[in-house]
Amino acid sequence: MISDKYLRMILPGIRAKLSFFTAVLVVSILAITSVIYYNQQQKALEEKMNAELKAPLEYVNTAVLDLENLSHSLILIEEFKIRVKEKQRELGKFKRKVLKKEGGLFGALKSFGASIGLKVRHNYYQKSVDTYFTRYLSEKEIREFETKVKGELRKESGAPIESVYYDKLMNISKRTASARIGIEAARSRIEEIEEEVKAVESEISSASDPKRKNTLISEREKLTAESGSLVKSIPESEKRAALGETALTKSLQNFFRGSYKDRISALGLLPDKVRILAYDASGKQTLDTGLLFPESSETGKKLLSLASFEENKKGLFQGKDPFKTAQDFREPENYEVGGRQYEVSYRVVFRNPGTAERSEILIDEILKSPRRWRAYLEADRKFAADLGELSQKIKSKLGELRKTGKVKPSSDPEFRNLYSQYKKIIKLRDSKLDQLNPYSEAVKTIESDRKKEITSLETKAKSLNEELTVWRKKETMPVKEGEKKFSLEEIQENIRSLEATAEEIRETLERTDAVKDDWSDSIPYQAPESFAGLRDAALDEFVFIPYRSDSNSMRRYWRNLEERKTVKKKWALFREWIFAGDSETELPKSKLPVLDSGILIRSRSEAEEWMWALDSTPLFSESEENETGGLAYDLLRKNHLGFNVVLLDRTEGLRKIRQNREELLRYTALIGFIAVLSAYVLAWMAARRIKTIIRKTEEVGKGNLEVEFPPAGYDEIGILSDSLNRMAHGLKEREEMKGELLAAEEIQKRLLPDKLPNHPGDAAEFGAFYKAMAGVGGDYYDFIELSKNEVALCVGDVSNHGVGPAIVMSLFRAQVRSILRKGERDLRRILSELNEYLYSDTPDHIFVTFFIAIYDRPTAKMRYVSAGHVKPLLYDASEKKIRELPAGGLPIGMDENSFFETTIEPRSFQMDVGDVFFQYTDGLDEARSPQGTMYGKERLAKTIVSNAEVSPSEIIRAIVDDLDGHTGKSVGSSGFSELSDDIAMIAMKRKS
């Protein structure tokens, strides 16, 4: 107690605890709020910067693509000019010679003479004419293309490019085109030489003439030397081509610098905070906003020379897979240079967004769920193999037709038949996609949900219109008899409310209808469309070049159904042009407006070769080792143009965020201090009231139950004070009741036998035990000496516990003794008389299980009868065994005598020397351990057998001790019992 007192003095009290808890709570709340606020500000800053960057970055992407397209177009124009001359020479051998009549003045005169009947002789001459296979892009078509491209080269004022500057661009383009064609020709010639060397070596091995053999060896050496020279020339040509492309790009940048600057400024780029650098796939810089804006040139200047930044930037150009590179550099990087904070983002740029986006969708689908598309990809590989074989047959057939030069492919039945088979396989491939599309059910669900939503909205709209009609009639028509009357204001208010709801539903229906064909964010639509359209998109971008790049083309394609239909018609037109074989340079007639936005840059034969390559290449490679194989990856790599590196100076934004955070922390500290101080004051006021209650409670603990707790208000402490007052009064009443119970227990003990029977002398010994659960109880035992040779043994158990059963037990005891004093010894009559009394004078829920026996000393015979009581036990000393005596009957007070007497049956047994008779109430064998197991009759019997040699009192003492061990409670000690039932037991042992 002393240590507790000192501990209470040392340890913090409720004031300190409450203040500490308040401080922790306030600081935690404010800290969490600060973190959330800080993160929200950072997120808001990022969103703001991204929003500001979006338009300029899209424009930069478009500008880079335009530069690439213009550069590509200018070089292509020069390539066309060179190729046309080469093709004319190359295809001249396929021209057909025909006889032509003499023309000119003499030819005309001869024709006139023949027409009037004169005999004239015409002169004929041979002339080479073009066939289908000798036609290529004409110089006229190239000039038209050049005119369109030149029209795109305009200054920021809209004025056309000067001729001098344009000639400069064309000279660079010509040198670059010559280098490219030289590379292509060298590689082609190297392949031819390899074939020729193989043929020569084969001839050398079979040649027998030494002179012929030496000639062949010399020829092989010449071919090998030529091949080596060509191999050496390729790097030099590649270098010239690369230098030419760089020079052309820089010249175009310089030309468009003013346009780019005005446009980027108009789009809201902040040059002092943002700098965008564009690079091609090899790492060469193609655009830098720092060169357009003087203030932007200082943005990130120190960062560009930072070794870690350069190292990370190099990683962009080392990877061969642009998709993986995009994934690796998806998260922005943060740098701190010279006290300034920079965020660097990397964006992949593709030459043809249509092909690139579809390829990315396909790759993402396969990486996420390869099993989903496995069945279709297997079918696609089979179709690709079939189309590859068929394309070789078509190629062979075209070779035959080219040699003769007489019939164009469209007129050849075999050619048409081969392409008929080709189209069938394409159609089967498309239908297979529809059949194996894993998103078909998802699409059906989306469509079904949309229809249900539209139906529901239309139903609501119809219902609202009908209700509106009713209310509008109420506004103008008089109220009918029996109808509820509404004021004009109520009617008009209801009409306005219904009109607003109807308008909202109408707008929702319009929005739903507007986006029904929008696939922008719906993979179940985009993925199958990408699988179906990847090859056609790649073919389109190969044969047709737009005059201007359009970064929004795919966005329009996904959002607009008409756009998708137009693009698919364009794709079908290109394929039909190739399938027909009717013209090398002219598309079939079409009114598609999309064809006016660009120009056809490939001949049909070139387009056909590319179509064969696309159709015969599987979308994804079957080999698990080559995870990045297949058409999707090939096209993504082919379309990879480069990267945009965005340098974002976040110093000012982060400085503002830090200032806000510091200000928030100051306010947090102030609020926390005020909160802790307030909590301490409130805790002191509460603790003062609690201390008063504690002092009073300590007095109660010392035994003073006259304490009165002072009123403490209506809060929890006031409730506690009232509760303690009630508790004190209750304790006082309980102490009084406890005194009364102790007195009742003492009275009840006096009713029990104060001594054991002694009339039988040395013939028998007796023992008894009684323990009430609540001081007084309903269990009962008695020894009544009837004469010198007879003694009555009684054990009873009144239902329930406590004072009421104790009173019944007292009255019952008196009744038993009264009957026996009258001299009644017939056990059946004794029980009948007791039952009649108890049944008529007690409530229905009160009954008594009762056992009475009369022992006769001379005969050592025990007569007994049981009224629903537990069966008594008899220890047989001769056999050293214990047995249960028969008993039964209905408890006393439960029914009338007419039935009761039929249930009881008097019995008797003979006791031998050493035999022990034992009877008890059910509170003994039903006593439970802490684990819930009952004491039980078996354990009771074992205890009696093991102690049968000692006196009955010692037997009962042994049972009580064993019961203490089983229950873990002190049953034999004085005071109230901790058991759940009263216990009574008696024992008798015959000595002689």
UniProtKB/TrEMBL annotation:
Pfam families: HAMP, SpoIIE. Residues 454-515 form a coiled coil. InterPro entries: Bact_Sigma-Reg (IPR052016), HAMP_dom (IPR003660), PPM-type-like_dom_sf (IPR036457), PPM-type_phosphatase-like_dom (IPR001932). Residues 684-736 form the HAMP domain. Keywords: Coiled coil, Hydrolase, Membrane, Transmembrane, Transmembrane helix. SMART domains: HAMP, PP2C_SIG. One of its GO terms (biological process) is signal transduction. The chain crosses the membrane at residues 20-38, 664-687. It comes from the Bacteria. The keyword Membrane applies. The keyword Membrane applies. This is Guanylate cyclase. It comes from Leptospira ellisii.
